[in-house]
Amino acid sequence: MAPVYEATVSAPVNIAVIKYWGKRDPTLILPTNSSLSVTLSQDHLSTRTTVRASPDFGGDRLWLNGAEEDVGASRRLANAIATARGLRAALEDQAGGGAVPLSQWPVHVCSENNFPTAAGLASSASGYAALVSALAALYELPQSASELSRVARVGSGSACRSMLGGFVAWHAGVAADGSDSLAEQVAARQHWPEMQALVLVVSDQKKAVSSTAGMQTTVETSALFAERVRTVVPARMAAMQRAIAERDFAAFAEITMKDSNQFHAVCLDTYPPISYMNDTSRAIAGLVHAFNAAVGRVAAAYTYDAGPNAVIYALEPDMRALVELLAYCFPRPADTAPEAFYPDPFGLFESPASVGHAVALPAVAALAEATGRFPAGSVRRIIHTTVGDGPRVLSPAQSLLDSAGLPKARRDHHH
Amino acid sequence: MAPVYEATVSAPVNIAVIKYWGKRDPTLILPTNSSLSVTLSQDHLSTRTTVRASPDFGGDRLWLNGAEEDVGASRRLANAIATARGLRAALEDQAGGGAVPLSQWPVHVCSENNFPTAAGLASSASGYAALVSALAALYELPQSASELSRVARVGSGSACRSMLGGFVAWHAGVAADGSDSLAEQVAARQHWPEMQALVLVVSDQKKAVSSTAGMQTTVETSALFAERVRTVVPARMAAMQRAIAERDFAAFAEITMKDSNQFHAVCLDTYPPISYMNDTSRAIAGLVHAFNAAVGRVAAAYTYDAGPNAVIYALEPDMRALVELLAYCFPRPADTAPEAFYPDPFGLFESPASVGHAVALPAVAALAEATGRFPAGSVRRIIHTTVGDGPRVLSPAQSLLDSAGLPKARRDHHH
Prior knowledge:
CATH topology of the largest domain in chain A: Alpha-Beta Plaits
Number of domains of chain A: 2
Low-confidence stretches of chain A: none
CATH architecture of the largest domain in chain A: 2-Layer Sandwich
Helix content of chain A: 25-40%
Oligomer: homodimer
Strand order of the largest sheet of chain A: 8-7-9-6-1-16
Distance between the termini of chain A: 37 Å
Number of strands of chain A: 16
Strand content of chain A: 15-25%
Structural class of chain A: alpha+beta
Number of helices of chain A: 10
Radius of gyration of chain A: 22 Å
CATH class of the largest domain in chain A: Alpha Beta
């Protein structure tokens, strides 16, 4: 029986604290400004991808969360696969005839997220990071994760930051070919083990403007965007790296909130205006400022991407009070079980059912009382996670493909 | 019987199309940038004020909408009255003993808006314009409305623009004493008679940040605000005056929408962020862009001040289709009579009850269908008005004070 050439990996989601918004080259996906993100734990949010190469396959095929996609339809996907193949082909040339000609064989790609798409979390970052990491493992590419981040970048800009764990900077670079536009780790997750994150999945009616279309409209029409790129972001990149190096949460939090607000400000300054946050998003931001006032220090920071969901960073000792407040003010939807609304992965509560019923800290309890409760289901679920590592190569037993190279019957591994 | 020294005036509301936000001198109320507004008709939105001076009064007293206010409590009010008195005192000096010493007598001030405070419309502009105009009439001051706008300005910045009708520019000025920070008419209302406005009163829960506090926080914390002041507003002031001179509605509308969006963008870029628009406000803005797309030209423009209410400018021929669309998508609240929700002052509809039931223009009807209906009462009322004139001196018969100089029993003249 012929050997199987296959690799299975998982890759993380990342949430920017200095936002990427605007391309200077839409094909190579070169950004107008550098950005910085926190990689989240793959225990709670990740994409698993299996890639297999075989001379017997009729052509490249891709399955996403169980449904087959048209590989030819996505130029970004084709670019990412072609770039990885090019790196493999170079290896094969160096090896003369000594290497298996994997670069010439079609691939089957099967990819699944461990979080429901319904959560409205962007999966393109973890998805392209998983694809590129799987191809790199399959092709035994010698490049570092940082070098490979260039390949993930051509699939989806923010995917380059998911190629590394911990705290990650995406340097905008200046080269026309994008060779210096790549991700580098600023600090490993072990550097700041207390850092944790909450993802609040916010209900929303309206269809959001796609970030790909939205960011270019901002570049073209916002009168304030150039100032953000020229002076604001460079200063914040430096200040944020300092805050992380010194584990200065107050500084980290203030820059995070200010940059999220400014990203949404330039969206609003776009013509026609773009708005991703809704009234629930804004209420959460207001509650975070009120929480900080109640505890007398900057203990939590919100950030919002191109949608209404909130991500809140806080240190482990402050998480219980924060979750108590949020779950009180944003009650669980009637149709959702307590453990689905807030799975409590770190065992903060006696029982899932007790979440949202009491706020222990007096100052925060007074705030909860004063704020009152929003309609149940305004926040659909709260995902509590930590800072995580980069892409992981998994064992063949975790392959998503069967012996024929087709997707296995899916066992749901959602949380 | 001794002669009565009294004057009664009415003054208009104005809605900025280039926004005033930020003071360079909070005491004299000198702005960081020039602004430009449209004065709205006093038939629908105005403040009426009667001022009487008498040596028999024990001291200055003020009644606002029937309730007495503490004159000493407001420095701005004291400043405005003192400044007007100073101008009168100068006159009396010139006249030697020949003038009645009104500047030395206490005044009673009675002021009423013809629109419910519940409408959430800022009444400080029309209020201070009415107060200063009434004092100017009582004191027989020779200064022009533009010169008197400096006096209104020390009461409330935007009040200086309500001292003139039509299209009004408030020049920021550069002098430290504020002598060159005053309002001037850019064009009379007769210059562009087709221009009309809709005020959509939007329901809102949360208490907004006061504009006085909010604008200074923006000046101090927004990283983008200085760019708006330095480069954006000066260019827009020139372009807006050109658009008005040429009656170029498309240009007028685009600048109006962009400047409203940028004002709210710098509010969001403030730390902590300030947001005045809510989901209903944003839905209205989106609907205006969709309306323009449906009719194939820029036929309507929204603008928002420091609250969720929308003001929409459009030319008379487009108003019916616009009201049909808005009243369809934002149905009348159950507890409001049709004529209170949309009084239809220009007789666009067969009957008040027919408003919101049909959209005639096919492209707009398709848009209404596609948009669907928001919860009834999201918009509480629609005020339809035109461009208006400046403060009017009214007859003694319209005095708000009785023979004793106290407020008459109020006959409600709200619409």
